[in-house]
What does this fold into?
Amino acid sequence: MTTNNELLRIMERISNTTATDEEIIQFNIWCDSFRGTEQQVPGLEEIQSKVLARIHQTINRKKARIIPMYARRFAAAAAVILVVSAGLFYYRSLKFDQSLSDIAKQDIAPGSNKAILTLGSGKRIVLTGAANGELAKEEGVVITKAADGQLIYTVSGKDSNSSDFNTIETPRGGQHQLRLPDGTEIWLNAATTLKYPANFTALKERRVQLSGEAYFQVAKDGSHPFIVETDRSSVEVLGTHFDVNAYKDDAVVKTTLLEGSVKVLRGAVVKVIKPNQQAVSDGGGIVVKEVVADDAIAWKNGYFMFSSDRLDNIMSRIARWYDVDVVYGDESLKREIFLGTISRYEKISKVLRMLERTGTVVFEVKGNTVRINRKE
Amino acid sequence: MESYIDLSDHELISLLKDGNVGAFDAIYHRHSAGMYKFAYRILKDEDECNDVLQNVFTWLWEHRHNLSFTSLQAYLYAAVKFNLAGVIRVSTRRTEILAEAPVITEGVEDSSLELKELMYLIRSFTESLPEKAREIFELSRNQYLTNKEIASRLGLSEKTVENQMTISLKKLKAHLGRLSFWSVLL
It folds into this structure.
């Protein structure tokens, strides 16, 4: 019978690989002795999702250098600090256009961290990966780049009007992450615009406007409700994790909840949703569905994920991320259902080839256009 | 894209080696609940178990190119056990955890595969060391010799042995990385 001290010593030797065979056997028996009784873990599914998200963050951090996330707390002060994670930045041009001749011969690269920040004054700042140190100083905004790639924006609260708004905008093929002074983290998908007050801390409500898609991790603050307004609904939360998909060219606005609880409002209609529920609002009212929340936020973890999605929905996501146009040789193809997962950071050919493996469709890429035909 | 649910562990691993994230997720969804419950039975703490799960799967992804085992499930549970050793060692609740152990029963057959994988996991590190360093490391491990005794036996200075062990242990940390928990190593 092994004493507790002996066990601890064995565990130490196992950790540093100096354990003998006998010690490993003893440890293994000790572990196995716990088996046999059924163990209930409350909330296991939520835990599983949460941990998987963390794993993906760690993996993607190394793959595409998208995050680092700061765990700093911000003191409420006159200076409003915006932390925007830099990761993989590159600067093409203010119009974000692509050279067509390259693409005809080569593959189409996936999106990356690109955005434009417009201040209340109208001044536009293109976010770019320049050298470390101070990058720009514009009208009360000082932008510096820290050694680990983070871009830090400091806005002096004294100068800005409390009614001033800042806008951050990602183009097609872009994405970005930012952190508001209250600690709320927001991931913006491609072709997305987010408007938020410049002097956040002084207001009663934390109200932002969204067009496009963003994933929110709202810092808890019971006395200042966080509200996301879109053209067809608004979402009111106190502190929670959710995704809002509100592209103007989509028929509906979808709000998907991962953690916490939110109110979705459209005119006079108010619906409260729980985790793994999605509120869908169109011109009329709001419908609540049960969904796999992971699918809705897979983009923020760095991949496309569809559990039985129509091809046209899948292709519109691909089109925004790779900044391509899609042409259907056969309209009925739009309703074909696909299922699967693939990293967002692959070139487009890899994604399309995987869709082709189902034997249903065939793709042709010419310049910026993707043609889809039915496979004979 | 096909449904990963229908693929065998073996097929999923094959895809995983190609960097297929969907396969990785499928492996996670297939095995993580069992692994978590197993760890929870022993640790009885959500945060610590979350760390174990995160460590093992992140490690799986990072080492996807050189995975080698007979049974994926046995391998995963072996990794969990290995990680548990490290977690319990440094846990502020270790006395509580150790006190919970049920009476040790003999002959728990079903984990012989896990034992094999656990041994392999632990041994594979020393197998990667250069000869002299390995000799020193194994003398320390198998025969419980002190640095002084090893130095005397191999005709080296005690300082050399100390340095070699330091380097080897640093390599070990790099190799087993997040699967091991190091508070004070040396």
